[in-house]
Amino acid sequence: MRTVDFPNWQAFLQHLELFFSKRPDDREGFVFRGQADAQWELDSTLQRFVRLHCSGEDEAAVSTRLRAKFRELSAGQPDDPGPLDPLQFELLARHHGLPSNFIDWTRSPYVAAYFAYADALHDTSVKPAKLAIWAIDLSSVGASDPLEVVQGYDAVRINPRAVEQQAVFLR
User: Fold this and answer.
1) In Å, how far are 112, 141, 151, 171 from 146, measured between CA atoms?
2) How far apart are CA 42 and CA 62, in angstroms?
3) Least C-beta-crowded within 10 Å: which of 108, 123, 146, 162?
4) How many CB atoms lie within 10 A of CB 164?
5) pTM for this prediction
6) Which of 45-59, 121-135, 149-163 ranks highest by mean pLDDT?
7) Predicted confidence band at 46 (pLDDT cuts at 50, 70, 90)?
8) Closest residue by Cα to residue 105 from 147, 143, 134, 148
9) 118 vs 100, which has greater pLDDT?
């Protein structure tokens, strides 16, 4: 993994100009994630939830229990989208705040930067030395890598914000 430090927003924008000057095929596989503190790990909300509230419990068991409770509480709600496959249900529950083992990414470095800066500005309890905008080239991820990539309209259609934010979910 390579780290690139930028002293300010302008330097980041100049780096993006270089990125966007590449051929579209050379940048097509990239996804980005913004975080308010560069010291944070790339943890899913489920990993953080288990660490903070269910120490010692199995993540899969906690996830199953949380999804079952969400299904029970959301049944018959006015905005019920109807039948969903398990992946769509999990992403819908994630959209409503249920911890999951997905980590949100975006195809847009600008959306990632927004989340890094917005979270840093809104969380006044921590003033990090650096923000982080992570980038992964999914085209370099091999078949043997244990990484599931969820993208495309069918997977995120039940979440209009995910569509607008060019969301990609990794686990």
Assistant:
1) 23, 9, 16, 8
2) 19
3) 146
4) 10
5) 0.81
6) 45-59
7) very high
8) 134
9) 100
